[in-house]
Amino acid sequence: QLQLVESGGGLVQPGGSLRLSCATSGFTLDYYAIGWFRQAPGKEREGVSCISSSGKNTHTADSVKGRFTISRDNAKKTVYLQMDNLKPEDTAVYYCAADYQPLLTADQAMCDDGEYDYWGQGTQVTVSS
Predict the structure, then answer these.
(1) Are 1 and 13 in contact (CB under 8 A)?
(2) What three-state secondary structure class fits 115?
(3) Please, are residues 98 and 24 in contact by the beta-carbon 8 Å criterion?
(4) How far is the CA of 13 from the CAs of 5, 54, 59, 129, in angstroms?
(5) In terms of CB atoms within 10 Å, which of 33, 51, 52, 119 comes out highest?
(6) pLDDT of 75-99, one tens digit each?
(7) What are the pLDDT digits (tens) for 19-66?
(8) Three-state DSSP class for 104?
(9) What end-to-end distance do the CA atoms of the chain give, in Å?
């Protein structure tokens, strides 16, 4: 059974940092691109940062570029999102998702949520003083 479980969310002051983890099980992470998405109340879900199955390429939204970093550790079956210099507008539920990538597309990093088939339950991030 394919599972993704997010953790690491919480309440943080503006300017602070959090590291989100996406622990995976039930599939071979090496063959999947992983994306981090977020959804704030009343807003559409948006792609935050995504990493190809090969790990060679990433795509990061302009709104978080320079502040958020995605990485993956296939041996630990975990993908991370390091979030620095957090702002109140980063407040949202953060989800990780998985997209199977054949070898020919292993270097593609896309944050189109329609491409992702498997989703975690989400973790709340609140940035407030």
Answers:
(1) no
(2) helix
(3) yes
(4) 24, 34, 26, 5
(5) 33
(6) 999 999 999 999 999 999 999 999 9
(7) 999 999 999 999 999 999 999 999 999 999 999 999 999 999 999 999
(8) helix
(9) 40
Give the C-alpha separation, 27 to 100, whole Å: 10
Mean predicted confidence (pLDDT) in 111-119:
94
Asked whether the beta carbons of 85 and 15 are under 8 A apart, the reply is yes
The residue behind tokens 């978080």 is 64
Assigned token pair, 33: 């691109």
DSSP, collapsed to helix, strand or coil, labels residue 99 as strand
**Rounded alpha-carbon distances, angstroms, from residue 50 to 14, 15, 65, 108:** 24, 23, 12, 9
102's tokens: 């054949």
**Residue 96 CB contacts under 8 Å (≥ 6 apart), including other chains:** 4, 6, 20, 22, 34, 35, 36, 37, 79, 81, 119, 120
